[in-house]
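#onboarding

Welcome to the new folks! Below is a worked example of what a typical request in this channel looks like: someone posts a single protein sequence, and someone else replies with the predicted structure as tokens. Don't worry about understanding the tokens yet, we'll cover that in week two.

Example request:
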Amino acid sequence: MIDRYARSKMKQVWSEENKYEKWLEVQLAACEAWTAEGVVPEEDMKLLRGATFNMERLNEILGDTRHEMTAFLSSITEFIGPEGRWLHLGMTTSDVWDTATSLQLLEAADLLIVEIDGLLDALRDRALEHQDTLMMGRTHGVHAEPVTFGLKLALWWDEMRRNRERLLQARATMAFGKISGPVGTHATVPPSIESAVCERLGLSPAPISNQVLQRDRHAQFVTTLALIAASLEKFATEVRSLQRTEIREVAEWFPKGQPGSSSMPHKRNPELSERVCGIARLIRGHAVTALENVALWGERDISHSSAERIILPDSSMALDYILDLFTGVIRKMHVYPDRMRKNVDSTRGVLFSQRVLLALIEKGMARESAYGVVHSRAMESWDQDLDFREMISTEPEVSERLTGSELESLFDYSYYLRHVGEIFDRVGLTKEA
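Example response:
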């Protein structure tokens, strides 16, 4: 499913062709290093620089050998001639595989960072657009006190900035290669070769390894993708909630003529946000697998390999897809300020209960007594759908402490917006951000 929808650049990163291209880069970098040390003759190296693999022949050999690295090498050496003997000199499969995989993961991270930047731009634009758009804040799904829709989006923007930093950190953790031989002792390939190969490839040599790069690195990368996906699921869940018929404060863009249901023509479902939530669950599952791949027997077993063939490309392509998808949701999302205001007004002023409580305390009333009075009237307003302002104004303990104008001033929505600009400034959300 993910492969069907994944965008072409990320698909290319995880294509078999790109994988083998990276393998060839590692192999040739090692040959260059051996040449610099006088092991591989320069004349042989000139020919090796033109080496390439043949996918069709590789797959034919693989069908017989069932060993991918030997099939890869054979597809090169049977065409290049005896100079091909210098390929893979002193190396083990994981030297090539792990170093090449690091290169693929760096390419994937760079594409994901571009997608994150696109979502950050979309969130910034919509947050600034709705900085002062009043809406009901909800805790436990129940009306609490007013916020603005811009604040909600600014919160998401700030979270995605953290996710961007997390991905950069995970990228840095994966920017390592290893050319240390069968068990990491460098017995067959000295550290100087590893350093030269990694420098040529833009990687750092792992300070120490066994037969593999340690899988805590890969686990950090995949769990970072899962955390980013979890944030997207959080945002998408809120869009889904706000699109419910009873709330109807935002809605996904719905092209004219698009059916929402095969049986109910009136339906307009938040299906894009639901898709984001579903795929986020998939990526979380891959994070568990990545964590389980950390524990390998001795200097290495192969239990991680089969799983990584799935979880690394799938996690990368899945996150790439839902980042792009949700960016579109945010950019095209319909926002209904009038409906937001209607929902704010729907509880007949009961949302101002805390302001009345605080005003009574400031007038000298004991907190417990003030809370009892306000709570009693608020519950009555909820239960009987009565106007809280009218009810509280007739309460003797309130009217003897607050004048009519003082009480009236408490029921002012602008009170809840007075620090919004300061919050935007503090988080650094401006048109130039």
